[in-house]
Design a protein that fits this description.
Blueprint: H1 13-31, H2 37-40, H3 42-62, H4 69-86, H5 93-104, H6 110-134, E1 141-146, E2 149-154, H7 163-179, H8 186-203, H9 206-223, H10 235-257, H11 264-272, H12 276-287, H13 311-318, H14 321-340, H15 344-356, H16 373-380, H17 382-397
Antiparallel strand pairs: 1-2
Protein name: O-antigen ligase domain-containing protein
Keywords: Membrane, Transmembrane, Transmembrane helix
Transmembrane segments: 12-30, 42-59, 71-88, 94-110, 117-137, 157-177, 184-201, 207-224, 236-259, 312-335, 342-359, 365-383
Length: 398
């Protein structure tokens, strides 16, 4: 575990400019769902960084010796799209800067980005939890229904009880990616298991708890496999990695569109998913789907609740069809790259995100999902270039 947190010995100017543009922005966003938002005022930092950060990213771009015409054209088109989507859309204000940083920093080392993001998530989560228990910020207790049962839930310093388990799930996925193909140790599984049990005990968030439990069980079984982990990616695993985002998006959209409480299977699925299908269909009927999204006012009060948890439905409604297609195509390209590179860790991380996006709305939020940078790499041709470079290196070794 220590190797995952080794400090970089050398930080070049390009990395420094990126870090200054990216880290304060996402760390500020990480504080927005906590009650520290009333103390630290993270939105002021976010607004400042969305101006200052662009200057830093443009300076970084100027350091490049060569800029391909294709990459430049695609970057300009994506930035224009992000600008249009964000204009007069409070829910999509983050899209503009997200697109800019994903596009202009598409050549950054993904492993560094994931590590820096994960460290921030861990630190801010721990600060929030300890502050809630110490009484520095509120630890709000709420009562909600799920599957016909009442449950007492603690916010743990967050404005809503699901934020903590969602961050834990993000940290787990990132840790899987950083572990690469190495087997887990009992201690690593034990740490995540304790965190998962602790989080579920206080927040009663079933779906995140279930996903984390399944992953930890699989890693536990893998420890006792005598033979080495097969590094090749093939069969069903390969197919689902390549087309997983398409399949999960299709499943989410179709079950939502055809949801009817009179249909037993869909009614059961809706109950299992805590009314996600019903709220998703209500959102589609009320707001529809447009090219550049709609400015939706979310209500979290129990009597007026209308939030859409599925990332696929949420992105289509709030950010529009163009951003939705960019995400689907970008992650499809990334999935194919991961399979061709036999990168099992990346394949598993992507698969978990594709499945998670059916039930959680964080797919297009960089402070939850740093793998969004793969979309920039996909459209800029960086993934194709890395594939070619790796193929040449492999031939030389042979």
């Amino acid at each position: 575990m220590k190797k995952l947190f080794i400090k970089e010995k050398k930080i070049n100017i390009s990395d420094l400019l990126f870090g200054l543009a990216y880290l304060p922005w996402i760390y500020a966003w990480m504080f927005t769902p906590t009650y520290y938002k009333d103390i630290l005022h993270p939105y002021a930092i976010i607004k400042f960084m969305q101006v200052f950060g662009i200057i830093l990213l443009l300076l970084r771009l100027g350091l490049k010796s060569k800029i391909k015409i294709r990459s430049l054209i695609i970057s300009i088109l994506m930035i224009i799209c992000g600008t249009v989507v964000s204009y007069n859309n409070q829910n999509a204000s983050l899209v503009f800067y997200s697109v800019i940083i994903i596009v202009l920093a598409s050549d950054m080392n993904l492993e560094k980005i994931v590590r820096w993001t994960m460290v921030g998530q861990i630190c801010i989560t721990l600060i929030t939890i300890f502050s809630a228990f110490a009484g520095i910020i509120p630890n709000v207790i709420s009562n909600s229904m799920a599957g016909g049962f009442s449950r007492i839930r603690y916010g743990m310093g967050y404005t809503y009880s699901t934020f903590l388990p969602n961050y834990l799930l993000s940290i787990l996925i990132e840790y899987i990616y950083l572990k690469k193909n190495k087997k887990w140790k009992i201690l690593e599984i034990a740490i995540f298991l304790i965190c998962n049990m602790f989080t579920y005990y206080y927040t009663r968030t079933r779906l995140a708890f279930g996903m984390i439990s399944v992953v930890l069980f699989a890693e536990f079984i893998n420890i006792f496999r005598k033979h080495k982990v097969d590094k090749s990616v093939g069969g069903i695993f390969s197919i689902f990695t390549k087309w997983g985002v398409v399949l999960c998006a299709a499943f989410s959209i179709l079950t939502t569109c055809f949801y009817d409480s009179s249909r037993k299977f869909l009614a059961f699925l809706n109950t299992l998913l805590s009314e996600r299908l019903r709220f998703g269909k209500m959102g589609l009927i009320q707001h529809g789907v447009s090219l550049f999204g709609s400015d939706v006012v979310w209500e979290t009060d129990a009597s007026k609740y209308n939030y859409i948890d599925s990332s696929y439905i949420n992105i289509m409604i709030c950010y529009g069809l163009i951003v939705f297609l960019v995400v689907i195509v970008g992650f499809t390209i990334a999935g194919r790259f991961a399979v061709k590179e036999n990168n099992r860790a990346m394949c598993l991380a992507l698969l978990l995100w594709f499945a998670r996006a059916v039930i959680d709305p964080q797919l297009f939020l960089l402070w939850f999902n740093p793998f969004l940078f793969l979309i920039g790499e996909a459209f800029s041709g960086i993934l194709k270039k890395r594939r070619s470079e790796n193929a040449v290196t492999s031939m030389r070794i042979q």
